[in-house]
Structures are given as structure tokens and as C-alpha cells.
Design goal:
By secondary structure, the chain is mainly alpha-helical. It has helices spanning about 5-20, 25-50.
């Protein structure tokens, strides 16, 4: 498993952990996990599945 996929999973875990671990009633902890987890998840989603720029020009 690549490092980017592990980070993708950890970002997802941060988003769902307030409900899984039972601290969703503490608003500041819940929202900090959701916001940071979403940022980590989206960045790594882009890194794993994003399209890389080609260094060679397209053929004409």
C-alpha cells in the first residue's frame, strides 16, 4: 500500500472519528477533525488519482 493511500485513509478516519469514538458532542473537537481530515483527504485524493502534467508536447 502506498504512502499516499495510507494518508488518504487517515484523512477519512479523521472525518469519521468523532462519531466512531463518541466525541461528536464536543463541537470544537468535531469540527477540527472534520476540517483537517477533509483537507488531508482531498489533497491525497488529488495526489493519488490526479492527472500528472506531461513534460512532452502533444503530437500534432
Amino acid at each position: 500500500m502506498s504512502q499516499k493511500r495510507v494518508q488518504l485513509f487517515l484523512g477519512f478516519w479523521l472525518v469519521i472519528s468523532p462519531w466512531v469514538l463518541g466525541f461528536s458532542s464536543i463541537s470544537i473537537m468535531k469540527w477540527s477533525n472534520v476540517i483537517v481530515g477533509t483537507i488531508i483527504f482531498l489533497i491525497n485524493l488529488w495526489a493519488v488519482f490526479g492527472k500528472e502534467k506531461s513534460t512532452t508536447p502533444p503530437n500534432s
